[in-house]
């Protein structure tokens, strides 16, 4: 059994990407003596987990699996569910560097012996890495992930994302786009390089495909500068010049660029007409006051300045687009005036990966569950300090 992860990994490498779930099922049955397995994948809204091997699972069985799988997915811990017949369903998180892919179900004939769950979790890690890589070679898992058809703009935006969460010990970062299936120009991007975490959040202008194309140009320009060794100023200036010379100032993108020293908590920022950044510390939500500079692409040869602020261990940062902060359905006050802060405070005991969903759900509730009138982005960063996680975030 200790060799199970290696056996599963070898089996996954030997099959085409669209057959990973079947290969994992065969290998896990053999290595762990499992009766059956399944892979559950999170949808774009992270509103449910959906089976790959048994998509026709009867409603009653699916709802039972869904509830337990969701607990595993949310907690990122194994969950054991023993039935009256003595069989034990083990639900294991499928996670790659903090990116939550879904949940692996392994059904065993009896409760696992000591150490078996740890081995099964390592097996799940191998499956998660393979699934993440397989997305480049097959559409099968993308089809499971979508519960309705994506607009062309949304297709571009989701493909452009680096992921939806990343965990590096000293920090946990997560983001969410909404409306998931029709999002246009709002976006987020990040990159980890040693102790430097770069995060950009874009408040796109316009709707549909033109907005998505504008955002794609801005994101790739910033990536080009960053990957060439450029800092925040170079990233902002290259993106701004690229957009200006393409649209002559007629189209521009409000953007916040952050560079976090994950060892010290020092944050450098370029506020280009930005989304809003708020800090949660000691249960208090405080806007971070930054000097707003011109949006990217508004004028030729725009130059940008860097500002700085500090984080302390346990701090939580939220970055939200105008579609969140300024939402004012039915003539109500803007969501960002008071309701958003209440939603953010309510996430105190949740990890960043759950907190982004809470703020989005509260935004939808504020709209009385009607469709959002604007794209919305929520990004949440928990900084635990150089030694890793503390006792909680934003407490």
From TrEMBL:
One Pfam family this sequence matches: SpoIIE
Keywords of the record: Hydrolase
GO terms for MF: phosphatase activity
Domain PPM-type phosphatase: 168-383
InterPro entries: Bact_Sigma-Reg (IPR052016), PPM-type-like_dom_sf (IPR036457), PPM-type_phosphatase-like_dom (IPR001932)
Keyword Hydrolase: yes
Name of protein: Protein phosphatase
Source species: Micromonospora rosaria
């Amino acid at each position: 059994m200790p060799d199970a992860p290696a056996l599963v990994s070898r089996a996954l490498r030997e099959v085409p990407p669209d057959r990973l779930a079947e290969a994992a099922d065969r290998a896990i049955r053999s290595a762990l003596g499992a009766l059956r397995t399944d892979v559950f994948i999170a949808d774009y809204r992270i509103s449910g987990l959906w089976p790959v091997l048994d998509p026709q699972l009867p409603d009653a069985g699916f709802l039972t699996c869904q509830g337990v799988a969701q607990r595993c997915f949310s907690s990122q811990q194994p969950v054991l569910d023993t039935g009256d017949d003595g069989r034990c369903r083990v639900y294991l998180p499928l996670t790659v560097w903090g990116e939550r892919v879904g949940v692996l179900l392994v059904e065993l004939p009896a409760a696992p012996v000591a150490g078996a769950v740890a081995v099964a979790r390592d097996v799940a890690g191998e499956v998660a890495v393979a699934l993440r890589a397989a997305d480049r070679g097959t559409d099968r898992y993308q089809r499971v992930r979508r519960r309705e058809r994506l607009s062309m703009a949304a297709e571009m935006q989701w493909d452009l994302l680096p992921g939806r969460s990343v965990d590096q010990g000293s920090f946990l970062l997560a983001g969410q786009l909404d409306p998931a299936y029709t999002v246009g120009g709002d976006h987020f991007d990040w990159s980890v390089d040693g102790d430097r975490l770069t995060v950009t959040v874009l408040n796109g202008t316009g709707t549909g495909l033109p907005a998505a194309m504008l955002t794609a140009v801005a994101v790739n320009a910033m990536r080009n500068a960053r990957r060439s060794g450029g800092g925040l100023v170079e990233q902002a200036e290259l993106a701004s010049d690229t957009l200006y010379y393409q649209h002559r100032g007629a189209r521009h993108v409000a953007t916040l660029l952050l560079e976090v020293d994950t060892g010290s908590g020092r944050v450098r920022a370029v506020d280009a007409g930005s989304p809003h950044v708020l800090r949660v510390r000691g249960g208090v939500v405080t806007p971070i006051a930054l000097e707003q500079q011109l949006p990217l692409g508004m004028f030729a040869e725009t130059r940008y300045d860097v500002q700085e602020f500090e984080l302390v261990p346990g701090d939580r940062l939220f970055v939200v687009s105008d579609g969140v902060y300024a939402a004012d359905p039915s003539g109500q006050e803007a969501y960002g005036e008071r309701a958003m802060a209440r939603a953010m405070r309510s996430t105190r005991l949740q990890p960043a990966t759950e907190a982004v969903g809470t703020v989005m759900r509260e935004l939808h509730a504020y709209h009385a569950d009607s469709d959002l009138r604007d794209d919305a982005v929520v990004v949440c960063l928990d900084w635990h300090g150089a030694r890793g996680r503390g006792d909680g975030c934003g407490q």
